[in-house]
Amino acid sequence: MIQRRKTRQVTVGDERVGTVRIGGDAPVAVQTMTSGYTHAVDTCVAEIHKLTAAGADLVRVAVPERKDTEALKEIIPQVQVPIVADVHFHFQRALEAIEAGVHKIRLNPGNISDRNQVTEVINACKERKLPIRIGVNEGSIIERKDKQKRMKELGGVFSNQKHGHFLAIMITKLEEYLDIFYDNDFYDVVISAKSPDPTLVIDAYMEISKRFDHPLHLGVTHAGPRETAMIRSCVPLGHLLASGVGDTVRISYASDPKFEVEDALEMLYCLGLRERKGVDLIACPTCGRIQVDLYTLVQDVRSKLAEAIELPIKVAVMGCIVNGPGEAEGADVAIFAGDRRGIIYVQGERVANVPEEQILETLLAECKKFEAKVKSGEAKLGEKIVEIAPPDPIGELGSGFDKIASGQVDKLTDLTVGGE
Ligand code: SF4
After folding, report:
1. What are the φ/ψ torsions at residue 46 (nearest 5 degrees)?
2. Which residue CA neighbors atom 6 of ligand 1 most closely?
3. H/E element holding 346?
4. Residue 221, pLDDT score
5. Ligand 1 pocket, 284 CB below 6 A?
């Protein structure tokens, strides 16, 4: 079990949209950001609904212009999730967003640094008990002209590290900015220190976590398309979270933000940091023993079960019986494929043997039946009734491995369903 670093807790939201706690003993929160214009009220509301349905705990919106903060007045009453206003360049946008009823503000020390302006935002948040995230992201806070000064202050501390000068700039900038908050007796602060470089992300958050007890918002910024950004994000974020560092996450993709939410949740489920919602699907990678179209089957099973099943039922889709029973150990529902057939097990008990075209509907029906039993208290997740007895490769699955072994046929495709 992961021992999480204890941080000061902040609360985001209100009675109407619900509250989300960040830090302390709260589960790691998942956030994302809308991709469209905030001032396009209807599409913005529709996107927020979609992201809430995907499982986002918080949704951030950009407010570059006055018309965006004006739109918040119409957007916020229509949504059921805490909204964070992402403010750049104009501290007035922060004040307008607060006035419009936003639940949290994100400020960037790189472009809103005037002490008086920051103090105005702090006081407005204090009055409404709103937290503020300080984002010292590499791209926006790096003041290269200040490099000498920063290095003099902290450079020695990080001189042995690959990203020494970035760390020195991030930490000294953060310390200076936090002073404004502390001077105003304001502590409901969340910190982020994002970079597109995963190793800098790890180093920066590790250093920050040693120095401050504010909750940390983890992320890799402008990570790229989902295909590569998933690895770029999950490697450093997974490392930090497994080390107990991180209280809220955003995975950033150049893609539909609903994938950011789905993948962030999957990462947290894998680390045991969030209770899984919906099916936990495992599947074999396939190999030369495969005799059904497993890739299509797995995708179909995934999408059908995501719609139909709420409970975290563990489902195993295995291409054959060679390693299947061992690899499906612990699954509530399992299917082992044979030659264009599949045998389905529930809690270790064999319940069906069907041709390939019926595997999906039978598996779905068995999952629904099992879920109903769990809900009624008749069955328990993760509990087997009997140990899986592997099917007979010829009689039941027609997979014919024994015929190959005995030299009766050369290849699996020489066999027909049922053996002969
Ligand atoms: S379960 Fe069977 S088909 Fe799938 S990878 Fe393992 S041995 Fe190959």
Report:
1. -60, -40
2. 323
3. strand 341-346
4. 92
5. yes
Tokens of 32: 């994302």
Q: Where are the beta strands (DSSP E) in 152-260?
A: 189-192, 217-220, 248-251
Whether residue 215 has its Cβ less than 6 Å from ligand 1? no
Q: What is the pLDDT of residue 109?
A: 86
* DSSP bridge pairs for 31: 58
Q: How far, in Å, CA of 40 to CA of 93, rounded?
A: 17
The Cα-based distances of 288 to 49, 100, 285, 341 in angstroms read 44, 60, 10, 16
Residue with tokens 């295995």: 318
In whole angstroms, how large is the CA radius of gyration of the chain? 26
Q: Which fold has domain 280-414?
A: Sulfite Reductase Hemoprotein; domain 1 (3.30.413)
CA 337 / ligand 1 centre spacing (Å): 9
| CA-closest residue to ligand 1 atom 2 | 320
Beta-carbon contacts of 322 under 8 Å, excluding residues fewer than 6 positions away, are: 289, 401
SS3 state at 186: coil
The CATH topology of domain 10-270 is TIM Barrel (3.20.20)
CA distances from 347 to 303, 323, 380 (A): 22, 18, 9
pTM for the full model?
Answer: 0.88
What are the sequence ranges of the domains in the chain?
A: 10-270, 280-414
- Tokens for 339? 């030659």
What residues of the chain score a pLDDT lower than 70? 139-157, 159, 323-328, 390-420
Q: Which atom of ligand 1 is nearest to the CA of 284?
A: 4
HEC secondary structure over 270-290? HCCCCCCCCCEEEECCCCCCC
Q: Which atom of ligand 1 is nearest to the CA of 287?
A: 8
